[in-house]
């Protein structure tokens, strides 16, 4: 059974499931969900806790299987935690987890509660027999990273928990947008900054100046956030993420590869559209799934073949630049070249919120 994170507290209040499986890479959400389950377990009398961390292919699963059979020597009920940081239990682990869930399901008692912690999994892993056994035995909670668009609302909700709120109207929106920019991609740090505001200021209304003075710039970026900002037409955010990646030591080759791969995919999709295929088939031709599919749904119909050909040429030149080759009329520094490529991609798109027929923007391309 799969439940959303926001449903977990209510579900725990209705009665504990035999197995809880947390799936996701966000440390704050994983920590909070695990703590909520542990608190509910202690309240229900699960006073003994055993932790198994699966490290490597040679992990001995006999201890885990034994825990499903043996009664605790020191307590009536025990909480078993199984942590699989790699998300890959291996062949032996797969068989052991299936046997473990089977024993719990046929045991007929409630003396054992199990918490399994996993990183984010791909679709193939979620089709594995061991994952299906965990799903059938209890509740699976997917810890989805808070998207940038939802981050201001998430921050407002967290502030409300400690009795604080931003001002109404435009100033409040500006305050939350500033806060989101400072903590994007780093929910754990965002949580700490919210706690800091709770210590610095009493419950009630917070002004922009109070938040600006208190909140550190603790944003963390990855390349997928850059491509998301580019194909949603967010100029300021795209350049901010690009600068963040540079200062965090990301390889310019990797950043270029992600951008160029998107451009090549869009070119395939555009060719399919020009051949008369409907948009869903064109997206399939572009091999766009998940977030990429949603982004391409917006931009593919408004990009012309000649625009994508121009971007492909620019991506090819930028590729050489990132590998140490000088290019005529291009900056000498790879990151400045990537900035130019990003601006060129943004210039092909209508401004965010504009209709598809709106004229292209004019951006300064030179770094």
Structure explained in plain terms:
Helix 7 packs across helix 8, helix 13 packs parallel to helix 17 and helix 16 packs antiparallel against helix 17. The strands form two sheets. A six-stranded parallel sheet has the order 1-6-2-5-4-3, with helices on both faces. It has a two-stranded parallel ribbon with strand order 7-8. The model is unreliable at 356-360 and 363-367 (pLDDT under 50). The protein is built from 17 helices and eight strands. Strand 4, helix 4 (90-107) and strand 5 form a beta-alpha-beta unit. The protein folds into three domains: 2-142, Rossmann fold (3-Layer(aba) Sandwich), CATH 3.40.50; 148-214, Helicase, Ruva Protein, domain 3; 223-347, Zinc Finger, Delta Prime, domain 3 (Up-down Bundle). The termini are far apart. With 367 residues, it is α/β, with parallel strands linked by helices. It is 55% helix and 11% strand. It has helices spanning 8-14, 27-43, 62-67, 90-107, 123-126, 129-137, 151-161, 169-183, 187-200, 208-214, 223-231, 235-247, 252-274, 279-285, 290-299, 305-322, 334-347; strands at 2-3, 19-23, 46-53, 77-83, 112-118, 139-142, 164-166, 204-206.
Summarize the structure.
The protein has 367 residues and is α/β, with parallel strands linked by helices.
Strand numbers in spatial order across the main sheet: 1-6-2-5-4-3
Query: What's the total count of β strands?
Result: 8
The percent of residues in helical segments reads: 55-70%
Strand-pairing-aware structural class:
alpha/beta
Contiguous helical run count: 17
Please state the CA-atom Rg, rounded to the nearest Å: 25 Å
| Number of structural units classed as domains | 3
Q: Could you describe the largest sheet, including whether it forms a barrel?
A: 6 strands, parallel
Please tell me the overall pLDDT.
Answer: 86
- CATH C-level category of the largest domain: Alpha Beta
SSE order in H/E notation?
EHEHEHEHEHHEHEHHEHHHHHHHH
CATH architecture verdict of the largest domain? 3-Layer(aba) Sandwich
Give the termini distance in whole angstroms. 51 Å
Assign the CATH superfamily of the largest domain: P-loop containing nucleotide triphosphate hydrolases
CATH fold descriptor of the largest domain = Rossmann fold
Low-confidence residue ranges:
356-360, 363-367
Estimate the strand proportion. Answer: 5-15%
